[in-house]
Structures are given as structure tokens and as C-alpha cells.
Amino acid sequence: MIEKFVPLNTVGVPLDRGNVDTDAIIPARYLKTLKRTGLGVGLFFAWRYDAGGAERPDFPLNRSSFRGGAVLVGGENFGCGSSREHAVWALMDFGFRAVIAPSFSDIFQSNCLKNGLLPVTLPAAEVRSLIDALLAAPGGKVEVDLPAQTVRGPNGDVHRFAIDPFAKKCLLEGLDEIGLTLASAAEIDRYERERKKKTPWLFLDLAG
Question: φ and ψ at 69, to 5 degrees?
Fold first, then answer.
């Protein structure tokens, strides 16, 4: 199961860069773990920290006005590169629940939906206006309403986005692939009982 997606009204964090690949999102040295927690510290590591490990004050995630934001607004082709699922885990562990961009890598977008992170695709001009507004007034709020499929920027502009109905249902109900299977547990049990009656020889314990 994943956390149910609820409407967001949160600080928007602008990342005014295109072609942000998964290695930039989370370096390879963090891929040793299979845990989904503790990865936030490595998010955008090369951009967030200097050679001595100190935070770079000009990077958006390190600016006090953007702290606590749960919506990241980035450039085109976000999440390109390798298919590492850790990139999504790192974004979520840091606190992001949605990423807005003009386009996403297909695999990254799929990983987002499987883990409960909402990828919102908007036209490049609309994303540009969001980034410009957030840079002009750091700390501005962005609203993301999945049921209505709308994004409201800090200037009050409303942008509609499309999403696959099945993916939307899973996000709203907090269902991952395991959760979807468990939701059909009664039907699966019924099928297995009937199958055993019709073809009992398939269920013989030959090792006994």
C-alpha cells in the first residue's frame, strides 16, 4: 500500500533546469539500500552540497523560503537517465508529493505512479510561468488538486492536467500493485476453491 494522495496547498520549489537525470536526483552510491527511507539526504547531492559537504546557499532546496515545500517544479525531460526507482524514493523521503514539468522520462513517470508521487505534465509555457512566479516571490504556494486535475499557481492561475484514470484511482485510494492484488483476495480465493474442485489432480502433493 502507498499513502493516499490528498490535495496539496504547499510551498512550490522551483528547479529551473532541464534534462534532470536520475543520477543527479540520487547518486549511484545511494543505490545499495532497498529501504525507501533515509535517501532524502542524498537528493540532488552534487547540487546541494559543496566539496566540503556544506549546503550551497543558492540551491533552492537549501533556501529557507522553500523549506518544507511538497511540490517541485522542474524543466523538460525530468527524470531521464537510468531507471533507478531510488530517485522517486529520494524525492518522497525529502517530502515531495508532486513534481510538475513539461515532460518526464517514461520509466521515471511509471516509478512515480507506483510509489505515490504525482507527476504532473503541463505545457512548457505554463511551467515557465510557475517557475518565474516562484523565483520572483520565494515561498509562494502551489495547489495541486488531483480529483479536479488542476494546479493553481501562486498568482492564482489555474492549469488543468491529464492523467490516466486508473493511475488516478490508485493514487487517490493508496493502491500499489500489491494493494491491487489484495483488493481482489476474495475473488482469488473463490477461483482457487472452484479450480481445486474441477481439477483436483493439479493440487496433489506429489512430494508427500
Answer: -65, 140
Identify which of 36, 23, 181, 49 has the alpha carbon closest to the alpha carbon of residue 117: 36
Q: For the segment 3-46, what is each residue's pLDDT rounded down to a tens digit? A: 999 999 999 999 999 999 999 999 999 998 888 899 999 999 99
CATH architecture of 8-174: Alpha-Beta Barrel (3.20)
SS3 99: strand
CA 123 – CA 107 distance, rounded (Å): 20
Query: Does the model's pTM come out above 0.85?
Result: yes
Structural element, H or E, at residue 9: strand 8-14
116 CB-near residues (< 8 Å, 6+ apart)? 2, 3, 5, 92, 97, 171, 174, 176
Question: How many whole angstroms separate alpha carbon 29 and alpha carbon 184?
Answer: 38
- Tens of pLDDT, residues 126-135: 999 999 999 9
Of 113, 79, 119, residue with least CA distance to 98: 119
Torsion of CA 184, 189, 191, 195, to 10 degrees: 160
